[in-house]
Amino acid sequence: MGKNIFKLFVILLFALILALPTIQVITHFIPEPEMNKENRALTPMPSFELKTINEFPTKFDQFFNDHFPLRGLFLAVSHNIKLALGISPTTSTIIGKNNFMYAGYYKNSYTSKPQNDTIAQQFANILKERKDSLQAMGIKLYVVVVPTNYQIYPEYLPEHIVRADTTQIDLVCKAMQEIAPDVNFIYPKEELIANKKWGQLYRKYDTHWNSKGGYIGAKEILSLIHNDFKNLSILGLHDFIFKYELQTKGDLVDPLLTGKSFLDPLFNGGTSKYFEPDTLYNITYTDTSNKIRRGISRNYTKPAEFPYTYECEFVTNKTNAPKLFVIRDSYWSYLQEFICPHFSETICIWDKWHYAANYDLISQEKPDIVLLEIFEPQIKNLVNNELGLLE
Fold first, then answer.
1. Which of 303, 318, 281 minimizes the C-alpha distance to 355?
2. How far apart are CA 148 and CA 146, in angstroms?
């Protein structure tokens, strides 16, 4: 009798599981968490047309896989089980030791050995040409390549992720020495590693460095500039105040956090019980006269389909100081508080990770200095843009 009851229970439970999606479609009685954390758009319902009828079954299958009833709940449960076990639910984020996170899409820049040094040589030749062109305009060029957190914090990487004997940045540094030794170029890996005793220099849940890492980078950049601009008065660490705040956020952890769910606190309403808050900093100045302020917008044409700020301007009261033009990416955000106070005016251009020469804008602005700030894995973008391979 007992065995029969158990069998009946299993049959009814299995039937309920099969019927649950259909019941959900009709009643919507189970609230589903907001699971829009997949870094992609879900497949829309395809249109049914005779001319594309052969493609319809495949497209509808993709649509159904993205929209079947209770999908969000099943994903959220799977998501949180993996996080509880210390496993990343997405390939875009690698969870290392002490929950330190790395971008999966940048892993090859650390683990793969380039087949040749073509990109490195092209990069060096392009920068040499830019240096000569800007010098003819009476402008100095400086270049900084920002390292990935793979390079600075390899000790937190999972054991199976090992640095290649030679990486792309190794070839770039070598090419810069051989082809363009007169270009003011820095890759502050060693300086960052040497200063890790000062505290965490990269954000724990994000691809970026933090303000302490930015300060180390800015110090190296300004030291290089000071070689040519001796009258530039360089601010020291005592001139900046690091006000810290604790946050559990970042471009690597955000996609791992589920949305609100009726199962709170399991899903924690978009927060996380698995990750401790990280330390971020707001920068102020010991001498408030060093404070930078927004300048007047030039309203330059923004690149198509680019969601971030294309142009920004900063000014100071130091009207006799040099003028700076920056070709940048998002890593500049952690440099600007330390670099801009030294210049009368700073014009910053984020050109969709193309890192173009921007001679037209430079000719209009007439700066004394051009600073190219580029993130290590994006070096190929600069080369491809120069070759006309980027849109």
1. 303
2. 7
